[in-house]
Amino acid sequence: MTPHLFVLFGATGDLAAKKLFPALYRSFGDASGVRVLGVGRSDWDDAKIQDEAAGALVESGIEESDARAWADKTLTYARVEAYDELGPVFDRADEIEASGETEGNRAYYLALPPSTFPGTITALGDHEADNDRAPNEDGHQEGGWTRLVIEKPFGSDLESARELNAVVHEHFREKQVYRIDHFLGKETVQNLLVFRFANAMFESLWSRSHVEAVEIVVAETNDAEGRAGYFDGVGTMRDMIQNHLTQLFALTAMEPPARLDADGIRREKTKVLTSTRAASPEHAVYGQYGAGEGKEAYAEHEGVDADSKTETFAAVQLHVDNWRWQGVPFTLRTGKRLKERLTEIIVTFRRPPVSLFNSAKDGCEPSPNVLRIRLQPDEGFRLSFDVKAPGSGFSTSTQHFDFDYADAFGDPPDAYETLLRDVASGDTTLFVHAEEAEQAWRIYEPLLNADMTPEAYATGTWGPQEAERLGFTLDPATP
Ligand code: NDP
């Protein structure tokens, strides 16, 4: 593993404890030459961050003695007054680097509220320039590399994403920038590329000639309670659809890349997003959860206005104006407090041109072939097809081919582990390019600018019934 100093802004926060400390341990626990410098305004010191991180590791299932040894060996803390006044960070970083252990390489990870991004990025960029650490035109950097990792959300609309990209590019080259969408770190999301481009059987059917419709479903059972202060006014469209679901959409719909590298893949994702028509309010439905299962409604959460129009559910139909997908609807939907936790890409194939059979179940035309690519909770695939039902005549019965990722390979690593290793090795393939982020915002601009009123839905259902007008059945288990 490449030695480096991992500077974690927002080390006192929720993401650090829940995801980043465990991922740092699992990615670099055995590596020498990797040190972590946590940064925060909180009155912490080295001992405190070591205690907190060790506690977080134990919480995530790591043995206490291993957690403690790693935290004590690896972690230090720098306290700042504000995230654009970084003198104490650079002093501490210089001290750590003086041993030569980290070889002058630095990853700056912004696990901070997005309001702080421009100030922090500017302060980091100025420091790089003042210390002659900025790379030259060929990307070569004297005395070790610098990489900038930015958590989501990247902007809140097209204009703010452009402004943030402008700040980033004033100080860093695109090759140094790692915009996180943690869905891209999931094994099964990456497996979409292998599944599509290593199996000619599926890829040859992957177009308007054979595909009737594609659904991308991310159903959550959790709610916004406890983080309503952040979520209210942001909503599911910005929090989930513009980033996570749009990444799944891009990987499902993109053309094969010319090369399997960051440029090749990100170019194709950007291209398909560019070909995607801007979403229209007529092809979108918003929802907001009401009470149910003994829990209060969204509008009753602390910090939420009783008449809040923030959506906790959104469904939107997208159309891709290119040769492969013209006329095929892609419906993206996600919501909170739904019936089950589930992430699936559902590809429904066209029926045979002539129907010769009826289903034994209901005497109707047999179901179309459906491929379900499940990303959560049990990663795998299910392909449905029809066979002859036993008995006289030619009635059909729907059966399945199943593949379970954990059965075949054991549990996949956490997304953040994969992404942190990629930052250290300089691979930007699984990160979002500047143009891609802007294109993803462009698609949803008409919805962000429209006055969308969310439909009420009860906790523990699949969302508002109204969403079915977009042409799918709310319960994803029902074909
Ligand atoms: P937190 O709200 O926990 O904030 C992180 C740290 O930032 C805090 O510990 C605090 O540190 C500092 N901070 C908080 N508010 C402010 C403020 N108004 N101005 C300046 N500093 C502030 O955030 P998370 O850890 O939950 O998230 C960090 C980033 O990661 C965000 O961009 C978020 O969108 C993203 N993210 C988070 C996920 C999660 O599960 N938590 C999931 C996916 C992405 P101190 O007071 O010590 O300075």
Topology of this protein?
Layout: E1 4-9, H1 14-28, E2 34-40, H2 46-59, H3 64-74, E3 75-79, H4 87-97, E4 106-110, H5 117-130, E5 146-150, H6 158-171, E6 177-179, H7 187-198, H8 200-203, E7 211-219, H9 228-231, H10 235-253, H11 262-274, E8 284-289, E9 313-318, E10 330-335, E11 342-349, E12 358-359, E13 370-376, E14 380-388, E15 395-404, H12 405-409, H13 415-425, H14 434-449, E16 455-457
Parallel strand pairs: 1-2, 1-4, 2-3, 4-5, 5-6, 7-10, 8-16, 12-15
Antiparallel strand pairs: 7-11, 8-9, 9-10, 11-13, 13-14, 14-15
Helix pairs in contact: 1-2, 1-13, 2-3, 5-6, 6-14, 10-11, 10-14, 11-14
What does this structure look like?
It is a single chain. The two termini are 46 Å apart. This protein has two domains: 4-181, NAD(P)-binding Rossmann-like Domain (Rossmann fold, 3-Layer(aba) Sandwich); 186-410 and 452-470, Dihydrodipicolinate Reductase, domain 2. The strands form two sheets. Strands 12-15-14-13-11-7-10-9-8-16 form a ten-stranded mixed sheet. The chain has a six-stranded parallel sheet with strand order 3-2-1-4-5-6. Helix 1 (14-28) links the parallel strand 1 and strand 2 (34-40). Helix 5 packs parallel to helix 6 (158-171), helix 6 packs antiparallel against helix 14 and helix 10 (235-253) crosses helix 14. It has helices at residues 14-28, 46-59, 64-74, 87-97, 117-130, 158-171, 187-198, 200-203, 228-231, 235-253, 262-274, 405-409, 415-425, 434-449; strands at 4-9, 34-40, 75-79, 106-110, 146-150, 177-179, 211-219, 284-289, 313-318, 330-335, 342-349, 358-359, 370-376, 380-388, 395-404, 455-457. Helices cover 34% and strands 20% of the residues. The protein has 479 residues and is of the alpha/beta class. The protein is globular and about 80 Å long. The protein is built from 14 helices and 16 strands. The model has no long low-confidence stretch (mean pLDDT 94). The structure holds NADPH dihydro-nicotinamide-adenine-dinucleotide phosphate. The site of NADPH dihydro-nicotinamide-adenine-dinucleotide phosphate (NDP) has 19 residues, from helix 1.
